[in-house]
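Help! Submission page says 'invalid entity' but I think these are all valid:
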Amino acid sequence: MGTETKPQYSPGLAGIIAGETAICWVDPAAGLMYRGYDIHGMAEKATFEEVAYLLLNGELPNAKQLKEFTQQVASERELPGPITEMLRLLPSDTHPMDMLRTGVSMLSAFDKDLGDNSHDANIRKSIRLIARVSTLITDGWRISQGEQPFPERPELTQAANFFYKFNGKIPEQWQTRMLDTIFNLYADHEFNASTFAARVTASTLAGIYAAITSAVATLKGPLHGGANEESMKMLEEIGTPDRAEPSLMKKLGTKDKIMGFGHRVYKEGDSRVPAMREIARDLGKRTGKENWVPICETLEQVMEREKQLCANVDLYAAPVFWLLGFPPELNTPLFAASRVAGWCAHVIEQHDNNRLIRPRSLYVGPELRPYTGSPK
Ligand SMILES: CC(C)(COP(=O)(O)OP(=O)(O)OC[C@H]1O[C@@H](n2cnc3c(N)ncnc32)[C@H](O)[C@@H]1OP(=O)(O)O)[C@@H](O)C(=O)NCCC(=O)NCCS
């Protein structure tokens, strides 16, 4: 005791480099790239499958590879029967993120590659996970609403299929395009909390299902993925643009955390906000519900003035999902349906070049003291 030199300590690991990655780079000055490609320009044009392929394999697919990958993902969507039965057994008010976490954990028992952490087996399992995370969300939702899941439509892409499995309608092309863009914006973000949790789990050589279960559990929290559900609750409470400033000032007065604002890395703005804001504006025009963007913009101005804090992607994702017809409880699961691609890429990278992630803690407890025997 007392002889060890104290390593540098940063609360919350802020600013600490905890590992190397070739998957994603977050530029604190509001930039984001996947595998060297700027997300801007790519997010609005690529399908989610194209971006998922890039994240998993390191290179963009050619036309043949993309077609094959898209078909592989589509062919893996169906859940094993006992998983659907398990979803039926859960209380109907189970949060969709808890259904998803339980479902991902249970899926492991049905994967023949479970015990194999090789690169090729991990790619096969990633394809299944990307496919089935979406099905767990949509089927779990339908079951919780007392409805039957819709049958699979393997000819649809992930984005189109998500709409179909949610409400039984084949979406318009523009709706699919929008959801592809949203999925692409959410697909990875280097060592965010859920990805880091996945990497810590994977670093013990636990398998990819264990790692993705950790990731889903971590994403649920309102300081991370859960923020997009909380943001929608706040926006609904505000309701109209004229109420945005007084409502926010009241919350700031009581030192509430304002969901959808602030970020550990971005201090000059979240690179994903401009694209998400434009989607919200476009949707507002298409649906005739144009109140959300002005509310968010007022919040942005007041937060900048009062706290010098910028909006993050979850602020605008909330009305976007709402206007696309999804209930707020599905906001974080929609995030997971996309981020699963990034999580899987990180688990593969971790397993391919593994070293146990095991940091130190700074002991702040009592000094060494004598134990004088059990109480008599
Ligand atoms: C994302 C988040 C967890 C980052 O936390 P962090 O890196 O520890 O935050 P910072 O160190 O930059 O915080 C600096 C100050 O701003 C405050 N702050 C940060 N985000 C805030 C928010 N959303 N609302 C109110 N105050 C906030 C902090 O309390 C802190 O104040 P203090 O110095 O008086 O203690 C935090 O901004 C947050 O809780 N945001 C709301 C949840 C959210 O939207 N999460 C999604 C992230 S993509």
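Support: the input was valid. A stray whitespace character was the problem, and the output above is from the cleaned input. The chain is about 55% helix and 5% strand.
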